[in-house]
C-alpha cells in the first residue's frame, strides 16, 4: 500500500498559518513514508471560490516546498458525486427532505426548550409518495439526507451506535451516531456538501490517511459511515490540534490572519514558517529546522498536544534569524543581486549574522560601497584624527583591525568601549553591527581615511 494523503483547501481566501500546518503535516507524513501528496481544491462553493485564490494557494505551497504529486478540483468531479448519490439512493440511505431552514430552526429551538438534543427527527421518512408530490407541487425542492446506521431496522427508533477509530494524534476515539442528525449531503439546488464530496474523493483517489484539524472530529464518525455505505474502506485518521493567534483567537481565511502570502512578502524564510507551524503545540522544542527532510524526521503525530496552541509571530523573527545566519552565499546570491547588493561572498559572510532577513543586508551595503554619515562626537575628533595616522600601511585585511586598535590603545591609553565605539561609529554610522575584522577590508583604506577626516 502506498501512503497517499491530501491537502484540500477551499479557494475562498488566502491560506493562513493554520491551514499551512495541515498541509505541512500531510506532506511531511507522505515524505517520511515514501508516499504521495495530493492537492485537491474543494471549490464546490461557486459563489465564494475564486481562481486567483487557487493560484495564490498553489504559489504559497510551492514557496514552502510542498509540491503535489497531482492536483484535483472538485468542480471537475460532479459526475462522480452524482453517481455516488444514486448509489446511496438505491441503497435506501439517501432520502429526500422538504423542510425549510426556518422550519428546521423552529424544531431545534423547541427540542432545546424541552431539554432534548436538537437532532433531526427523521420526519421526512414518514412522508408518503402523495405527501412528497404535494410538497413538490407547492414548489418545494428536496434536500437529501444520509440515513445514519444507528438503528436496528427501524430508523424512527435510533439507538446508541458508537463509531470508533484509533486516531494517530488523539488516540482511541468514539462518537455515538445517535447523538447526530442525519447530515444533508445534497442541497435543494443539487450541489453537494463537503461531508459527501470529501468522502467520495478520498475513496476514489485511494487516500490512505486523512490528517486534518480537530474541528473535523465530529465529521469523522459520519464520514466513516459514509465510506462503508459506499463500499469503501475508511482511511486512517489523524486530527491535530488547532493554532490560535497570540491572543487566543481562532485563525480565519476571511480575516486574513497570518496569511502565508503576507508572511512570505515580509521576507521570511519558508523554513522559519514551516518549523514554527509544525513544532508549535508539539512535544518537541520549537527551533529552526534547515530543511523539510530534516523536519520530516522529527514528525511525531502522537506527540502533538490535544489542546490548541498559540502561534506567536514574534517567534518567527527569532527562527528566521537563526536560518539566515547559516545561509551560504550561493543560496542568497540571486536575492542579493535583485536588491542591488554586490560584494560577493565576503560581504555576505561579514553581515549575515546581523540580518534577521536576507533583505537586511541592504542596511550594510552602503557602509562598504556607498556614502554614509559618520557619527563623530566632538570629544573624539582628536582621537579619530590620530587613528587615521596610525592605520597600518599596506593592504587592509582581516588582521588589520586588531593590529590597528592595539596601536591606538598604546598611543592613546584608551580601552574597551572608548577605544572601539568611536571607530565603529565613524566608519559605519552605527554603534553596533558586523564584526569589524571582516567589515574593514570591505570598506577599504580610501573610505576609512575619508570617514575619519
UniProtKB/TrEMBL annotation:
Domain of life of the organism encoding this protein: Bacteria
Record-level GO BP terms: glutamyl-tRNA aminoacylation
Subcellular location, principal: cytoplasm
Annotated ATP binding sites: 253
GO cellular component terms listed in the entry, alphabetical order: cytoplasm
Motif ('HIGH' region): 9-19
EC number of this enzyme: 6.1.1.17
Span(s) of short sequence motif 'KMSKS' region: 250-254
Name listed for the protein in its UniProt record: Glutamate--tRNA ligase
Gene: gltX
